């Protein structure tokens, strides 16, 4: 059965690029446009990985990580930040919130897929 990955980004074009890469590698994808939308779509189904932007309207990625970690069904779901942010302070905030990896945009799809394959839950 295919693994499910949630992609959270307010840029539709970026979501599209990530989704094409993930789908071509055989993953199922759930798309969300910001943190609030992502939380609304986490309805108990198994999600093997969340890939999230940091800077988004309504709820930013780091707040999303904190909120996801409070949900019993998703407490152990790995979260990778995919963002233009590369400052050590932001990365530290992400790590403290519970993010497992940090990938800086622009990214190469093979690099993304390599990181995804290491993080995705069995």
UniProtKB/TrEMBL annotation:
PROSITE patterns xref list: RESPONSE_REGULATORY
Domain of life where this protein originates: Bacteria
Keyword Cell wall biogenesis/degradation: no
Modified residues (4-aspartylphosphate): 53
GO biological process: phosphorelay signal transduction system
InterPro entries linked to this entry: Bact_response_regulator, CheY-like_superfamily, Sig_transdc_resp-reg_receiver
Listed SUPFAM superfamilies: CheY-like
Keyword match Cell inner membrane: no
Keyword set, alphabetical order: Phosphoprotein
Pfam family, one: Response_reg
Domain named Response regulatory: residues: 4-120
Stated name of the protein: Response regulator
Lineage of the organism: Bacteria, Pseudomonadati, Pseudomonadota, Gammaproteobacteria, Chromatiales
């Amino acid at each position: 059965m295919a693994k499910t990955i949630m992609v959270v980004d307010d840029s539709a074009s970026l979501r599209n690029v990530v989704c094409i890469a993930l789908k071509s590698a055989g993953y199922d994808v759930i798309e969300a446009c910001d943190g609030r939308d992502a939380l609304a779509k986490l309805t108990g189904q198994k999600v093997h990985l969340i890939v999230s932007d940091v800077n988004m309207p309504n709820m930013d990625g780091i707040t999303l990580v904190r909120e996801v970690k409070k949900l019993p069904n998703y407490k152990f779901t790995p979260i990778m930040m995919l963002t233009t942010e590369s400052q050590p302070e932001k990365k530290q905030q992400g790590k403290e919130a519970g993010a497992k990896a940090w990938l800086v945009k622009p990214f190469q799809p093979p690099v993304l897929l390599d990181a995804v394959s290491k993080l995705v839950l069995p």
